Structures are given as structure tokens and as C-alpha cells.
Amino acid sequence: MATIEVRNLTKHYRQGKNLIRALDGVSLTFEEAEFVSVVGRSGSGKTTLLDLIGLLMRPTSGTVLIDGMDTAGLRDGQRADLRGRRIGFVFQEYNLLPALNVLENVMLPLRYQGGGREGRARALELLETVGLGDRTHSRADELSGGQQQRVAIARALVNRPALVLADEPTGALDTQTADELVTLMRRLNREELVSVVVVTHDLDLAARTDRVIRLKDGTVLSDDGQAAKVA
Description:
Blueprint: E1 4-15, E2 18-30, E3 35-39, H1 46-53, E4 61-66, E5 69-70, H2 76-86, E6 87-91, H3 102-107, H4 110-113, H5 116-129, H6 145-157, E7 163-167, H7 175-191, E8 195-199, H8 203-206, E9 211-216, E10 219-224
Parallel strand pairs: 3-8, 3-9, 6-7, 7-8
Antiparallel strand pairs: 1-2, 1-4, 4-5, 9-10
């Protein structure tokens, strides 16, 4: 069964007298444990697609199915619960809480899902996996950008989601650190058997994914499973 299915998804906005078609009839299927990149110019609909898949906003029409569940009719509380259990997020700006230490940041999603001792063990295991097992008690703002993004990746995985959505995860990093992060995400994609969808302007990153989806003006321009063909 596909983890995520997007059916005829649209998101339209009114801007004065103009109708902005941020997303316009997109249909996609993301298979289990795929590593997918979404590319396109600014304004092509990449982040809108990610926000809709992540249930952070509601579409104008169409629907998102998660593990076969149609999310269109879910109430806000049900959407939040499903998002917390099945979806992890990684953002360009990391979105860590500076008042919390590294371990507390990773465990933050467990507050809403009830992780307990097992959740703490899971968080510690992930911090070891991302190479930060010795920084559990460091404050988030004491880490480098690459280290903060590693914490964000561990946080995204702590609830064992079916899907991780990453919005320009390497955009604020230097080339070497970005390369290390992509290698880490690929390894975790395989080891955790989690689907990863990455929005990026970085074609080097896109070329290392299983599949490249190109958006233009809110529609799918191409959907290429041969990532090496990205030019």
C-alpha cells in the first residue's frame, strides 16, 4: 500500500481581484520508503504541496490519503493527531527551541504522543545515529548549523513516522555539511524504512534521490524516477 496518495489537489488564493493558483490539480503517489525530491522555481507550488501533504493547511479541493485514510473529512484535532503520529518535519531554519537542550528538543514530539521511558531511549538512540550522542545536554544554540539540522532530523524521526517532509533542509548549510546531511537522510531513509519528500533548489541533492518531481505554475511538469537524469 502506498504511504501517501495525493488526488487532484488544488490550493487557490484571492489576491485582490486576482486568483492565485498555488497548486492546480496535482495527483501523485508516494510509495513506502521512497526518497523523493520536489524541484521547481520559486512560486511553482513546492512548499504549498509539502504543507498540504503534511496537513498543515487544507486544500481548496482534492484530498490527501495517508495509509489509505482520506484526510479530507477529518476535524482539526484528528488531523493534528494523525500528523503527530505519521509525519515528521525538517525545516531550513531548524526550528529548535533554544531554551531546551538537544535531548529535550528531540523528545518534544513525544509530549503530545506519550513516549515515556521508551521514547527517551528512542531519542538517545537517534542522537547516537546522527552523531550527536555526546551533545545530549548541550543547548540547541550552542551547536553549529549542521549539528542543529541533525537534531531536527532526529526529532522528525522520534515518533517512527511513515513520512518525513523536508523543506530546503540544506539551504542554510555549506556544501560539505549539506553533502553530509543528504548522506545521513539517505541512510536513515533506508534504515528506518521511512518515506522522505524533500523540497529543494539544490539539483545535486535532487540527483541523489530515487525520484524527481518537477513543478511549474502549480502543476506537475514531470515525474522522473531516474534521478540521474536531472540536469
